[in-house]
From TrEMBL:
A UniProt-annotated Pfam family: CoA_trans
Gene encoding the protein: dhcB
NCBIfam families given in the database record: pcaJ_scoB_fam
Protein name per its UniProtKB record: Dehydrocarnitine CoA transferase subunit B
GO MF entry, a single one: transferase activity
Provenance organism: Oceanisphaera marina
């Protein structure tokens, strides 16, 4: 079965490492804050000016003035810092973020990403995504594998305006975890209960399938 948004966040959280500074984009990536492994020291950075973002607040913790880049209310962990967005983007552009997690509309076999504009539709806009893909070497894209109409989002070439070119190496969808190398998607893991055949049928870009493709290992909620 396809992963839920929460399950996708859990899988991304497995890529966190102790001491990492991590920027979480709008959408599914924000949920990763709820699944940081216990005992691991990770500093979550929000481009609007917060370093040390915690999990989403309970009703008792809710503070309408404490928000992330997507205008969702958040908490601040002990030791957090608050500053203006210019300093935040200096951190991003200076290459001081260890891991960036972003959503996307499309990704292609060349590592290009389109995440900010769909012609004729109202979308929030670029935000900090262009800076993040330019300033980070370690990026994970989280997205659904296909549109609601069953059209693949993993393409030979992005059709939408690009956010960044040649910058994406890893993609986690609701069906699979893939890496991008030498002009192809490489299937590394599949969601529990999802067949390789299904993934192949919904991947428009060149896909390399190893002899053995393990299922993702984590507790399905």
């Amino acid at each position: 079965m396809a992963l839920t948004r929460e399950q996708m966040a859990q899988r991304v959280a497995q890529e966190l490492q102790d001491g990492f500074y991590v920027n979480l984009g709008i959408g599914i990536p924000t949920l990763v804050a709820n699944y940081v492994p216990q005992g691991m020291e990770v500093m979550l950075q929000s481009e609007n000016g917060l370093l040390g973002m915690g999990a989403f607040p309970t009703e008792a913790e809710l503070d309408a003035d404490m928000i992330n880049a997507g205008k969702q209310t958040v908490t601040a962990r002990i030791g957090a810092s608050i500053f203006d967005s210019a300093e935040s983007f200096a951190m991003i552009r200076g290459g001081h973020v260890d891991l960036t997690v972003l959503g996307a509309f499309e990704v292609d076999v060349h590592g290009n990403i389109a995440s900010w504009m769909i012609p004729g539709k109202l979308v929030k806009g670029m935000g900090g995504a262009m800076d993040l893909v330019a300033g980070a070497d370690n990026i994970i894209v989280t997205m659904t594998h296909a549109s609601k109409n069953g059209e693949s989002k993993l393409l030979p070439q992005c059709q939408l305006p690009l956010t960044g070119a040649g910058c994406i190496k890893r993609v986690l969808t609701d069906l699979a975890y893939l890496e991008i190398e030498d002009g192809a998607f490489i299937l590394k893991e599949r969601a529990p209960g999802v067949s390789v055949k299904t993934i192949v049928s919904l991947t428009a870009g060149k896909l390399i399938v190893p002899d053995q493709v393990p299922e993702m290992r984590f507790d399905i909620q």
